[in-house]
Amino acid sequence: MSNTAIEGRANRPALRLVSTKELSRTDWLNVRKGGIGSSDAAAAVGLNPYQSQLELWMIKTGRDGCLPKIDPNDETSPMYWGSLLEPIVAAHYTKHSGNRVRRINAVLQHPDPDRSWMLANLDYTVVGAGDVQILECKTAGEFGARLWRDGVPEYVVLQVQHQLAVTNKIAADVCVLVCGQEIRFHRIERDDALINRLIELERKFWTYVETDTPPPADGSDSAAMALQCLYPHDSGNTLDLTQDREMSSVFADLVTIRDDIASREKVEAELKQRIQQRMGEASRARFETGDVSWKRSKDGLGLDVTTLIKEQPELLAAYPLVRPGSRRFLVNTKQ
């Protein structure tokens, strides 16, 4: 293929896969399962602090029935406030920058058939500006604000670079409202080297989806939750891995790490106790590099359920509560 043909193909605009104007949230989520969206990009390459590759794979392969679902109407959810405040953040961006913005109201798709699994939802496009074409609006609460301390978090950078890849645009502005009272503006320029690497890693993840092969767990809480959902029950059988050299090595490493953690926890407890012993009745102690506090918490009021059931056993039959069991992972070593 000639350089002209390649350049022409690369400069094509994104395809409008489906309009979202009349699309229900359920249908929108189903459309997203057909590819990797911009908000999926970081998780697809293992760099999302909130979601693992394994959890994302479960969603894309329709195994997400037991995964926790975000209620868009839950007023305690960051998603609820993010959606509510997004137009306000966009309006403030226009006021500050002078750039007009408008909604796309569509799921976009990469124009290259070989990358048709790359999808994107844009918050806004920037109208009439030569140096920037996309606006991404964010809100960060007290917990999330720490991720923005040194600029745009990596997972957001990957989200925006994915958008630039799908749309073939050159730059995006990220406008974030921090703790409901501080607006910050960041410009992200297109990085073709990063985009090429991102596409390579996303393609590898999409192969996991197409071949129905789970990606490796990464040690995160998200992966732990995904595994509990994938395999909630045990069969009672024993899997013989004594001849599996790779898994035997993994088991040996696990035992070594657990022994090291136990040893370090003992050292930690001893050091803590030495400080407590020196503090005596003091509430706080200062050191050259920091401080510690040792204060009594307020007394709490609880219910002695064991005694209550013993004295009034009929309550257990009248108000039963079945707690579903979960699989426990126990390690036993040969002595």
Give a short summary of the structure.
With 335 residues, this protein is an alpha+beta fold.
Task: Provide structural commentary.
- There is one protein chain.
- 21% of the residues are buried.
- The strands form 3 sheets. Strands 2-5-6-7-8 form a 5-stranded mixed beta sheet. Strands 1-3-4 form a 3-stranded antiparallel beta sheet, covered by helices on one side. The chain has a two-stranded antiparallel ribbon with strand order 9-10.
- A hairpin with a 6-residue loop joins strand 5 and strand 6.
- Helices cover 41% and strands 15% of the residues.
- The longest helix is centred in the C-terminal third of the chain and has 35 residues, at 245-279.
- It is built from 11 helices and 10 strands.
- It has 2 domains: 3-228, Lambda Exonuclease, Chain A, CATH 3.90.320.10; 241-279.
- The chain is of the alpha+beta class.
% residues in beta strands: 5-15%
Gap between N and C termini: 65 Å
Q: Helical percent range?
A: 40-55%
By DSSP (H or I, 4+ residues per run), the number of helices equals 11
Q: From the alpha carbons, calculate the radius of gyration and give it in angstroms.
A: 26 Å
Number of strands: 10
General form = globular
- Count of discrete structural domains: 2
Which regions are unreliable across 5 or more consecutive residues at pLDDT < 50? 1-9
CATH architecture of the largest domain: Alpha-Beta Complex
Structural class: alpha+beta
